[in-house]
Design a protein that fits this description.
This protein is an alpha/beta fold. The protein has four domains: about 110 residues, 3-Layer(aba) Sandwich (Rossmann fold), CATH 3.40.50; about 90 residues, 2-Layer Sandwich (Alpha-Beta Plaits); about 120 residues, NAD(P)-binding Rossmann-like Domain (Rossmann fold), CATH 3.40.50; about 90 residues, Regulator of K+ conductance, C-terminal domain (Alpha-Beta Plaits). Helix content is about 35%, strand content about 25%. Strands 3-2-1-4-5-6 form a six-stranded parallel sheet, sandwiched between helices. A six-stranded parallel sheet has the order 14-13-12-15-16-17, sandwiched between helices. A five-stranded antiparallel sheet has the order 7-8-11-9-10. Helix 1 packs parallel to helix 14.
Amino acid sequence: MRIIIVGAGQVGSSIAADLAGSHDIVVVDRDGDRVEELTYSLDVLTVQGDGTSLSTLEEAGIDEADMVIASTDDDETNIVICGTARAVSDAFTVARVKNTEYLRTWERSERAFGIDFVVCTNLLAAESIVRVVGIPAARDVDSFADGRVQMAEFEIPPGSPVTDQSVAEADRFDDLTFAAILRNGEVELARGDSLLKTHDRVVVIGNPEAVREFATTIAPEERPGRAEEVVVVGGSEIGYQVARLLGDRGFTPRLIERDPERARRLAEELPNAVVMESDATDMDFLEREHVGDADFVVAALDSDEKNLLVSLLARRLGVDRTVAVIDASEYVELFETVGVDVGVNPREVVAEEITRFTRDGGAENVAIIESDRAEVLEVEVGEESVLAGRPIHESVADLPDGVVIGAITREESLITPRGDTVIQPGDHVVVFLDACVADEVTPAL
């Protein structure tokens, strides 16, 4: 497939890097230095120019393009790029936007703006944050098969009951599959004799109840069940969306916003939230409002440094878990090292969402693990799939090492995969893949 990506920032570069091995990629950007850098670092073609210009798109090969992804940092520019591409080609168009109003307009009018698919950075980041709320110790959570299957990543804390146990010893859950262990930047498939160590990151796949039960097992000191008290710091668009989504799920979050006018508007728009006008770095206010009693604090202010400060203050007050919006991807690991429990980078989230449209074999959902070290796919098994009509131990033996079948759904039923389980055409399968074999394995599924 020939794909034109307009915008070589973090989102565009991430998508290009992920797809370069399996597709013909052309990257367009105004920045000559960035274009030159990508030319030497990735196996892609590059064009320096304005992606809204028809001549630039023609130079990039719009006549032969199967897909155009507009991933600049400007919403209106991305809309114009897709509209121009639609006017002169049959390419599938994908636009990245931040403003949820553009998404709402597109949802209400089929193919509005000449765009086939819209991904909203702020909304996707908020949804990512909400998924981890209420699951003790979870660093990342993704849903598959209409919510019947969850993939979750956990870090094993010091003193965990599963420390130094083998996977076979720790696996006491009927509806859960241990997929992988992430250790020192390496991906290790979870075998029965694999030992679990403190600070290992474990990826599990199963039904939501089993995932929550596992979470409580590895971190029994965490409060059981879902979070009850959530404080959102910052009435940014992401903060607003987090509070709205939590309210829709039965929570009554508290949202702290410093600007009086913005706070009043949020109070009107969030009937299921308590909006408080204050500076979230005011220790007297935080103590007076018992913020330290919260299960979760979500830092969604307008700068990475402020979000780090709020997260550290929250931990000092006794908050169980902190989630911070981190705009600079290079800060995520650093912030998590110094005290933030979960860092969410909106650009990484939206790049992951766009990536699923480009999968050979038609993946219905994709989750990227640890900055492209691995991924989890949901695919519908076809007649020609290597998995169809065979026991799992036979079909996996024909695939390169680095594949774990995590879950199977058949109609409305969830099937926990075992070696002798036979996968049928029409089944939906959730598969863990090491990144080094993903391009080879995905077409065979």
